[in-house]
Amino acid sequence: MRDKQFLMIPGPTPVPQTALLEMGKAPMGHRSTEFSAILKEIYADLKWLFQTKNNVFIFTASGTGAMEAALSNILNPGDKVLSLVIGNFGERLAKISTTRGADVERMVVDFGKTIDINALKERLAKDVNKEIKVVTLTHSETSTGCANPIKDLLAVIKEHGALSVVDGVTSVGAMEVKPDEWGIDILISGSQKGFMIPPGLSFLMASDRAMKAYEECKYPSFYFDFAAHKKNLEKDTTPYTPAVSLICALNATLKMMKEEGLDNIYARHKRLALGLRKAIRAMGLKLFVDDDNFASYSITAILPPEGISVADIRKGLKEDFDIVVADGQNDLKGKIFRMGTLGYVCERDVIGSIGALELTLKKLGANIELGSGVKAFLESLI
Amino acid sequence: MRDKQFLMIPGPTPVPQTALLEMGKAPMGHRSTEFSAILKEIYADLKWLFQTKNNVFIFTASGTGAMEAALSNILNPGDKVLSLVIGNFGERLAKISTTRGADVERMVVDFGKTIDINALKERLAKDVNKEIKVVTLTHSETSTGCANPIKDLLAVIKEHGALSVVDGVTSVGAMEVKPDEWGIDILISGSQKGFMIPPGLSFLMASDRAMKAYEECKYPSFYFDFAAHKKNLEKDTTPYTPAVSLICALNATLKMMKEEGLDNIYARHKRLALGLRKAIRAMGLKLFVDDDNFASYSITAILPPEGISVADIRKGLKEDFDIVVADGQNDLKGKIFRMGTLGYVCERDVIGSIGALELTLKKLGANIELGSGVKAFLESLI
Q1: Which of A34, A38, A223, A338 is the best mutation test for B, with the most CBs of B within 10 A?
Q2: Residue A65: what pLDDT?
Q3: How confident is the model at residue B283 (pLDDT cuts 50, 70, 90)?
Q4: What's the complex ipTM?
Q5: With an 8 Å Cβ cutoff, is B246 touching chain A?
């Protein structure tokens, strides 16, 4: 049905009307006092959302832009980087480090698994000369639905002394992240995720240590330059013309988020994701990440029942129910499908989607008891 | 009056309703077939708008992002760059080249003037060993309202053999630029200008020679990487999540532009800018760029009458008429004000603005004959 599409992909995610109405307004001048007043509020609200005393910069760019911003401001050619890779987006941080001329070592696990703390401990213990300058890691790995135990991993990195660069693209505003307490040096995220607005903005929190590393960076990016962003942030502005419409939409959603409260937001994501996982199991399907302790609350990867293709499931959900779910990426294409519970998603959305999935699978010949998934989800809400 | 604000600044510029309605729609999935179909049309339409057979990449970034994209994909540390600087934005290309480790030489003129062709000829003739790899230059210099005679300058650069990087931020879609015919290697622009949509996207045309230079670039930007954008463009997609809402708005405005026709668009900008200049002169005010042959058709810089401050003029226009004009930048702050005729601007808009300027100046004590500017503008339309 027209205008009924529900995006369950890990971004773009659904956008509340309040934000869409802001998007549809004629943009205001980015150097006006009205716009500065909005930016001033947003810079403060982002500190709240990121749970940090550090500055949070706003880039007009995709999440990948913020990834590049992170690494291009602290790396020099030859620097040693340890990249903890649990999926495609972890690999992207490694790749970007390579393009900056860094000497990159990867610690890779089978996709669907998380980093083993002891393995990391061992590796860093071997680095007696503290040659590893930066460790990159992912919180919620969008490509697999896996969530690293980053609090514990960060404690190990902190003890070693390397700078930590954390991809929080699908975790900030959805899952608990405490950068100051846990010792994150750079934390990045993107607008079309927990922030509930369309794609086009990304965010970067930089610690004092990250700012210090920036000072020694020989060729930092001009567009993403930390100093330029810091200087302008302090004057309630941005160094270059930002995506004004998205900033105004963000102002609206940040207010909504403050109204809901951060703990409630985290609880909602956890409730919906764990409830969805219960439903999937009740339907007799398998989760790609079996252990709830390592499950992302933003995105859930599901294996199709034997003999039924991911393509057919996605097609059925889209054509009959206006629900868009994501395929797996690269090697996982056709092997998993991914359902998002990220951002502007409520119980009713998930109930509807589970029901739609049940009937879609049944129509495709799967042995599904209609209502079994919905029942399990509803029970999980009690 | 509420929602009546008219942006005469050089960006953001006014946005047509058709595009605002697209902005206000829930974003679609960026890997969907629907979105690919839109991108396919846009990539073709951008070739038309840029008047080129080359690819035009789309970046989710400000114009400065496209500037960085241009230089970070072709420069290696130590490369020699000649930057032709006629204003702040010309200087920005020089600065970005420096951050890439290039050896930058500037040819600077007094702001408000353009580059002298003979001076450029002489400088390049001296470069017998062809050490200068790249020449950066500005078409319409947004900070001064000056337009370089780029066709002639490009002929000189072409003869020398250096790569040309042209800032067309306020010229593409407003003033005639023929990259293939004139020999531009990289031409960049931004969405909140001639493209008639809000800020957040920028564009880059790369010639075959630019793509060749890219291949020898040691540390190209990952986010702005030419090869990644080329590969994805060929598959009607983008390498990373783009600002979907802006892309859909762009699809709408490109259709509007095709309907109007490129020659008509150029003629409209020329008519409005030259008409505005006649009005300014008729009011007894001075233009910062005196010679019409070197005037930008996108932005006109005007000196305030003696004894009247730019701040007061801007305040009067905004408070009494909901018209926002721009101050000068840096050293020119308070010395000029700038009125845009860029993008979605029609005769009626300019008539209203000239009238508003007349009364604002009169109220501030200037010796203005009310109606004199409007009369001159109207006469210019006959």
Answers
A1: A223
A2: 98
A3: very high
A4: 0.96
A5: yes
Give the C-alpha separation, B46 to A12, whole Å: 24
Cβ-based contacts under 8 A for chains A and B = 183
Distances B99 to A218, A222, A223, B107 between C-alpha atoms, Å: 8, 7, 10, 18
Kind and range of the H or E run holding B224: none
State the pTM of this model.
0.97
> Quick check: B341 and B297 in contact, CB under 8 A?
yes
What percentage of chain B reaches a pLDDT higher than 70? 100
Strand B80-85 to strand B132-138: parallel, antiparallel, or no bridges (unpaired)? parallel
Kindly state the average pLDDT of the residues A278-295.
98
Question: CB-based contact (8 Å) between B343 and chain A?
Answer: no
The CA distance from A131 to the nearest CA of chain B, in Å, is 22
Contact (CB, 8 A) for B308 and B364: yes
Does any CB of chain B come closer than 8 Å to the CB of residue A169?
no
Q: What is the pLDDT of residues B149-182, one digit of tens each?
A: 999 999 999 999 999 999 999 999 999 999 999 9
- pLDDT at position B347 is 98
